[in-house]
Amino acid sequence: MRRLAACALLALLWPAQAHAWTPHIAAAAEWAKTRQGSITFAVRTDEHLWGRGLDRQVPSASVFKAMLLTTYLRRASVRHRDLTDADRALLRPMIRRSDNVAATRVRDIVGNAAVVRLAHRVGMTRFRIAQIWGLSQITARDQTRYFLHIDRFVPKRHRGYAMRLLRTIVPSQRWGFAQVIPEGWTLYFKGGWGSGTGAVDHQVGLLERGEDRVAIAVLTLNSPSHDYGKATLRGVARRLLRGL
User: Fold this and answer.
1) How many of the other CB atoms lie within 10 Å of CB of 182?
2) pLDDT tens digits for the chain (244 residues)?
3) What distance in Å separates the CA atoms of residue 21 and residue 27, rounded to the nearest whole number?
4) CATH annotation of 22-240
5) Is the overall model pTM greater than 0.70, yes or no?
6) Three-state SS for 109?
7) Could you say which DSSP state residue 218 is in?
């Protein structure tokens, strides 16, 4: 009985503790100053938004694919029916292993205007589409706004599938902040990088534990190498999420 009472008390206290948590913005910003390249980041909950360089526009690279996923599933010809093998053959590799050919095919199917409409629906203020999709402009503010409740923008019929893809990124691409997620939280995310050069290294995601949600975006440009960029993503996120 005592154990049951203790578990019940923990269940009551846990959400309050998560609700009271704040990210360690100053520590992350100070550490970021020691790193080469441009670094912007944001952390968002339902109540608050924190960050540095929140509205600085950067090329999206493959982070854009998370927007393509939602745009495709919202199509009138898709939203009310079961997904086909052909649908999955495009969406699965595009998200789980960041296949560029599949992404280009999806973009050609949905069209740029549909992606812009999604951005407006989300409330993004500084998103700019580009003909070369990886050069589309994103910000940390806009991406955390999108990811905090990304499932709400996906038709209910396809939410489970979309979130499963974002949860099961292949192991070889689970670097950066995917390596420092606090115990007990589930991560749904997408990364983007510039062909391994370090020119672009981004990650944007949602952490979920029960009813608690935290969105995080870390966007970097001009790292000396891809490995250096991954280390920057990991270091910033580790400091931001301390104590979560």
Assistant:
1) 14
2) 444 444 444 444 444 455 689 999 999 999 999 999 999 999 999 999 999 999 999 999 999 999 999 999 999 999 999 999 999 999 999 999 999 999 999 999 999 999 999 999 999 999 999 999 999 999 999 999 999 999 999 999 999 999 999 999 999 999 999 999 999 999 999 999 988 899 999 999 999 999 999 999 999 999 999 999 999 999 999 999 999 9
3) 15
4) 3.40.710.10
5) yes
6) helix
7) E
